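User: Hey, quick favor. My workstation is busy. Could you predict this chain's structure for me?
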Amino acid sequence: MPTSPRRFVRPWQVIEHDAHFEVTDAAGVSLAVVYFDDERSRQPMMKRLSEDEARRLARQIARLPTLLRIERGIDPGKA
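Assistant: No problem, here it is.
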């Protein structure tokens, strides 16, 4: 039985936690979690990003709805 595609309410936001960034939609649904570790010696071993890298990645994920609307010509704006 096919289901309708799930909608994630805009805007998406980034919430900072102790060791990760969480991307949520406006309804509070968790969409992505990006982990980081600023202990340089452990990053390669733990396969974690630095805090800055994780923040930038989470922000780009949160921009996806806006970028898709720009691409489709729904919203004029800067990519």
